[in-house]
Amino acid sequence: MDINAKVFAAFQAENKEQLEAIRSIMSKEPKGGDGVFNEALRLAHTMKAGARVCGLNGIQELAHRLETLFAQVRDLAVPLDGKVTAVVTNSLDVIEDGMAAASAGRPLADMVPAVTAIDRVLHPEAATAPKKPSRESTRNRVLAAFQSEQQEHLAAIRRILAKTDDGVPSEVDLNEILRLAHTLKGGARISGLPSIETLSHQLESVFARIKGGTVQLDPAVMGVVNLALNAIEDWMASLAANEAPAEPKRALEALERLLAADGGAVPAPVQQTEAAPEATTSHAPAAQFDTVRLSAGHLDGLLRSSGQLVTESLRQDQVSRALASLSSEIDEIDREWESVREVSAAHLHRLSATPEFTRVLHYLEFVERQARLLSRQARQVRALQQRSSRAVRVLGEELQENVRKARMMPAESVFGVFRKMVRDVARDENKKIDFRVTGLEVQADRMVLQALKDPVMHMLRNAISHGIEAAGERQRSGKSEISCVRMQIVAVGNRLTILVDDDGRGLDLSRVAEVAVRKGLLTHADASTRSSEELTALIFQPGFSTAKAITDLSGRGMGLSVVYEAVSRLQGDVRVAQKTEPGTCVIVSVPLSISTHRLLMVLSQSQTFAVPSSGIQRLIQIRLSDVETVEGKPLIVWEKQSIPLVSLAQLLGIGGGSDFAVEGNLLSLMILKSGTRRLAVAVDAFVAEREAIIKNLDNALSGISIFGGGIVLEDGSAALVLNTGELIESFKPVYAPPTAKAGETKLESKASTVLVVDDSFTARTLEKSILEVHGYNVVVAIDGAEALSKLRSEEVDLVISDVQMPRMDGLALLQEMKKDERFARLPVILVTSMNSAEDQERGLSLGADAYLVKQRFDHQTLLETIRQLL
């Protein structure tokens, strides 16, 4: 008896005991709310798990409904009446009949009516609506389950075959492939997919003969196997896309020829029950876990809430410090009183005999007692607050970690479709491609994988269309007619790396330089002096393509700006690796998860910014005298490498230009990295390191590339997160040696003051930061009513207002301003999501000087508009 047969036999015996135990409970006429239903619930739960292990999906579903029903009766949510007893009895009979059928090798009876009967009891309000039996929805759920299952099984088979280079798989590997093929066959039968069932059955037969030694797994046989795997994948992909799948005739014929050539007849798939499939592997069955469906939106919301909980726990540190300070002050009062009492003890004793001072002495004794009581209570409250703060922080971090794990999923779930896509593109391009993928089992954040799906697809399409030569060109170059495209997914530490490598013609750097000169990205002189890495980086510029004939796919640069932008938004980097052999290798590196980021908080010009630690190579301090100047450009020498130097204030355009904050003759520097590029950035101070969730910026402001989002600090204020890759890209050398900040600065012309009115905290914070970066003084208001108050108390040169706000909107604010002579001439810019011509005409007719639509909004447009109006 094989392992799965033993498992089924064990479950069969266990199931009889479970059914009898539940019947015994129901025969005692228990009452709703009785603890006896805990036992019934446990029995149903165990039955569900056993049915799942044995692949009895119908019994598993019915046991799950019984479990839910028992829980509802126990909690008094469903009254225990004749209806409940009837559906429980009927369900137990149906399960018993199903087990008898499975034991005899017969198909199981339809479980849908029994499931529907329990659903009517659980949801009586839904019973009044005319509904068709849920047979179709049940089949859809089964198909969805099989869709996910077949992807995992195909990926597992491919992984095993990929490591079989000598054509002789181990017995353990062959047993595992046989088990996977058999499970595919069973799942296809349950799902009503005869074509997939036949393919899986014949694959199973092929590997059974390989195990028996009558068939060798040579390249020809491997080709037939891959053809069958691809056919299953393509068939299921068409089904998922609601397309009519084409019959896999080519794969079926190839399998039949292979099996017929072996001299044996090809047995038809045996119609087995849902009972335990044949498993020849010696591995113990994997542990089974209960699962629930949870929408991605709810999971993201849970992540945000956990992040806010952690932030709130950090904010408790301020409370702890305040309590510590209060306790110290009370202790100081107590100590001071002790000193006074010791010095004046004799005088107080003499005064105690004087009646008029008796009340004063009693008051002093009362103050002494209260001071000691307050000191003791302050220490107790502080200790309680510290314990609670630590507990909240630990719980918040645990919740955040659990949510992070829940968001992780295998790369196969998102990238598994690429095999079919590559085959389709290769067929359209009339090219023969050997596409190899490794690492699809790597787990990564769902949002990271989804964000990378289109960029990686662009990389693959460009590799096939433009990187791989036509067959004739490859033959003339002495290459194989079959080209190789390799995709590798690796997780190291907290980084996810995706490599797309091809053996095509590679990048034509002279052509890249030519296009860069034509587009004005380089001068002829620059093009001749740039390194290969610098030229290669240009292919990620928007619209950059070296293709002479543009098609939907052609052009190595086509779509690679999309790759750069997507990776940059994830705080990652993308580069083209140097190769000794022909071809191109593009490497993407991003955080494995975006649930939390490790951030360095830095100070520049009295503003706090957050820098992702993944973009920082090293934090160092150097003497100002160690800064060198070459051709007027400041730089440092670090690890025998010359690195350009710039202040963060200069990069952001704030403060004193190239002046550096020097403390004790030391400069605090971050060495930022992006691919092979390095940049030393000076800051005023390193503040702290922390884990935080980066919040997206508002749509109107999300186009500012140097800002990757924002975080909420402990004091409730916001800090902008810097995009290290974009900071390096934005760097322009300053031809002047750095100087320390002088104690006195020259008087400058008074900066203009801008009033920003917006009910969005994020929008106000970011607009304020942008304007202050460019030298404006900024006043903020949350709506029109507060804006009017600010206008009456502040000197304002220009107003930027949202339109849709509570209390008083932007249009009403504009009307009130025009009525008042003091504000009637102030320039007003309206920024809104209302894009209709009528809305714009109304805003302009009321006297607005400019009307910016958020969908087309960017900070450069805003700054240019302000400059024109001021």
Q: What does this protein structure show overall?
A:
It is a single chain. This protein has 870 residues and is α/β, with parallel strands linked by helices. A 6-stranded mixed beta sheet has the order 10-14-15-13-12-11. Strand 6 and strand 7 (584-591) form a beta hairpin. The relative contact order is 0.04.
Summarize the model shown:
This protein is an alpha/beta fold and 870 residues long. Helix content is 52%, strand content 16%.
User: Strand tally, please?
Assistant: 23
- The value of Rg in angstroms is 36 Å
State the share of residues found in helices, binned by percent.
Answer: 40-55%
Q: What is the averaged pLDDT score?
A: 77
Strand content: 15-25%
Number of helices: 29
Amino- and carboxy-terminal Cα gap: 88 Å
Taken from the alpha-carbon principal axes, the silhouette is globular
Structural class, judged by helices and strands?
Answer: alpha/beta
Strand order of the largest sheet: 10-14-15-13-12-11
Report the uncertain regions: 128-134, 264-290, 549-558, 742-748
Largest sheet: 6 strands, mixed
Write a concise keyword list for the protein shown above:
globular, six-stranded mixed beta sheet, 870 residues, 16% strand, alpha/beta, 29 helices, five-stranded mixed beta sheet, 52% helix
How would you summarize the topology of this molecule?
Blueprint: H1 3-27, H2 36-53, H3 57-74, H4 82-103, H5 112-122, H6 124-127, H7 135-162, H8 171-190, H9 194-212, H10 219-240, H11 249-261, H12 296-343, H13 345-351, H14 355-407, E1 408-410, H15 412-415, H16 418-429, E2 432-438, E3 443-445, H17 446-467, H18 471-476, E4 482-492, E5 495-502, H19 509-518, H20 524-529, H21 532-537, H22 560-569, E6 573-577, E7 584-591, E8 597-604, E9 607-612, E10 616-623, E11 628-630, E12 633-638, E13 641-647, H23 648-652, E14 666-674, E15 677-683, E16 685-692, E17 707-712, E18 718-722, H24 724-730, E19 753-757, H25 761-773, E20 777-781, H26 784-793, E21 798-802, H27 810-819, E22 828-832, H28 837-845, E23 850-853, H29 859-869
Parallel strand pairs: 2-4, 9-18, 13-15, 19-20, 19-21, 21-22, 22-23
Antiparallel strand pairs: 1-3, 4-5, 5-7, 6-7, 8-9, 8-16, 10-14, 11-12, 12-13, 14-15, 17-18
Helix pairs in contact: 1-2, 1-4, 2-3, 3-4, 3-5, 4-5, 7-8, 7-10, 8-9, 9-10, 9-11, 10-11, 12-14, 16-17, 17-22, 26-27
